[in-house]
């Protein structure tokens, strides 16, 4: 017998090897997916913290007044533009790494993070003039650590500069909330009502918290609009 000859694998042996590889892939894939989601979530938290610091720096330079959204600001003066000088790389920070429309937003000058309209969109009269006290004044927020300033936008949110704030006063139902924000931006299993996974939230004092979509949904379903300043 030729000592250099190799015995070929039988069909049964090949099937056993393939089965083992499939089993290993099935075991490893969830762990890899979770790790990828966790990494993107951490990056998003970092982005939001940088935005929070930039907001605070801007406010400190402007008598504690926060920047304006596209609802009232002129072209080139929306919040993502006015805080740019306070950021090392605004184009990196303004896009959530888990946003499937991130590249579109980048090219259109938009952002994956949208501001709470309760704080940044003033009430207007019939002539387009603001009613009441300014809403974007940090000094008027009673509890900075309990008031949400910014959210991760939903896939439905437009990609342009004008899509930089929520419509929080309309959050009377879960459907209205998830139309504006991605409460399930970080998940390995999407469900139709967006109640799985979690998202990151920037608070007015600059800290960032992660909340599960199920927790946010329960609060909304109970009549607790999470966007109302505390």
Helix and strand layout, with pairings?
Elements: H1 11-61, H2 79-82, H3 90-93, H4 102-108, E1 113-115, H5 117-120, E2 148-152, H6 174-180, E3 198-203, E4 208-212, H7 213-221
Antiparallel strand pairs: 1-2, 2-3, 3-4
What distinguishing features does this structure have?
four-stranded antiparallel sheet, 37% helix, 230 residues, alpha+beta, 7 helices
Description:
It is a single chain. This protein is α+β, with helices and mostly antiparallel strands and 230 residues long. It has one domain (11-221). It has seven helices and four strands; from the N terminus they run ααααβαβαββα. A four-stranded antiparallel sheet has the order 1-2-3-4. Strand 3 and strand 4 (208-212) form a beta hairpin.
**Secondary structural class:** alpha+beta
Main sheet properties: 4 strands, antiparallel
**Unreliable sequence segments:** none
Mean pLDDT: 90
Q: Which percent band covers the strand fraction?
A: 5-15%
Cα-to-Cα separation, first versus last residue: 85 Å
Query: How would you describe the oligomerization state of the chains in this entry?
Result: single chain
**How many β-strands, per DSSP?**
4
Q: Give the count of structural domains.
A: 1
SSE string, helices as H and strands as E:
HHHHEHEHEEH
Overall body shape: elongated
Number of helices: 7
How big is the Rg?
Answer: 23 Å
Estimate percent helicity: 25-40%
Q: How are strands sequenced across the largest beta sheet?
A: 1-2-3-4
